[in-house]
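To the wet lab folks,

You asked to see what we're planning to order before we commit. Fair enough. Below is the target structure as tokens, and below that is the sequence we designed to fit it. If anything looks off to you, flag it before the synthesis order goes out.
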């Protein structure tokens, strides 16, 4: 299926590794021009850009910004517009996943998790919506949620679950506000994937995570990325405010 993404400009937060990297590659494979956003991993972001260039389809640029800082987010959108004139698609993939039971969870870590995983989504969505409304243009947003938003956490990630629950409800609220302006807002809830972020947890508890997945395997980030890319396209033309499960059957709701 041609997703009609050729020439579209997509901003992917947390695009230097894991799911974000997979999304960048899949978008570029569809002919999109991709901004690989990163906070610290410049070399990794540049590697993603190089890989996309070598594939010979789509274009990519690496751009730094801390999505938890409003000034950084405004600068990032300005920088994208200076290069490619606009942003058509926003994918919020930036996230952190610290581990601590609630009794051991510090206020600092709680604040940091919500700042990146929830406030960052708010700031980037707000910036995109403001610019699209001012220009009388539509746009597409896909936020990365988690099954933990619905099931809670069992392995010391209550802060992450709380942030992702916020992402789900924020996605619905924003979708309701902007639907009539041609702005689509959806979310995807990935299960456990083979990524850098999950590596230590999988080494320590792979059998436990596998026991919770009806399909009986850990996901490949590319499987989730393809769903995100579809939702970022005009082929998903009658869907907004929805959260799609990509968890190997963990949710089945």
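Sequence we intend to order:
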């Amino acid at each position: 299926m041609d997703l009609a993404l050729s020439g579209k400009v997509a901003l992917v937060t947390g695009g230097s590794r894991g799911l974000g990297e997979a999304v960048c590659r899949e978008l570029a494979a569809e002919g999109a021009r991709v901004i690989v956003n990163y906070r610290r991993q410049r070399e990794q972001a540049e590697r993603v850009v190089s890989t996309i260039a070598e594939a010979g389809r789509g274009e990519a640029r690496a751009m730094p910004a801390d999505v938890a800082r409003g000034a950084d987010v405004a600068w990032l959108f300005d920088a994208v517009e200076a290069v490619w004139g606009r942003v058509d698609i926003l994918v919020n993939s930036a996230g952190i996943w610290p581990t601590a039971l609630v009794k051991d969870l510090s206020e600092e870590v709680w604040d940091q998790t919500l700042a990146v995983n929830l406030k960052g989504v708010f700031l980037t969505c707000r910036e995109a919506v403001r610019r699209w409304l001012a220009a009388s243009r539509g746009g597409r947003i896909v936020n990365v949620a988690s099954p933990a938003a619905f099931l809670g956490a069992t392995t010391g990630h209550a802060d992450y679950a709380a942030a992702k629950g916020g992402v789900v409800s924020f996605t619905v609220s924003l979708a309701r506000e902007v639907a009539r302006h041609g702005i689509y807002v959806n979310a995807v809830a990935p299960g456990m994937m083979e990524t850098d972020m999950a590596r230590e947890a999988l080494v320590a508890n792979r059998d436990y995570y596998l026991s919770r997945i009806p399909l009986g395997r850990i996901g490949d980030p590319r499987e989730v990325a393809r769903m995100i890319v579809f939702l970022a396209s005009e082929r998903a033309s009658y869907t907004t405010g929805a959260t799609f499960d990509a968890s190997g059957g963990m949710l089945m709701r």
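Structural context that might help your review: The CA atoms of residues 103 and 156 lie 10 Å apart. The domain at 9-191+228-244 is CATH 3.40.50.720 (Rossmann fold).

Thanks,
Computational group
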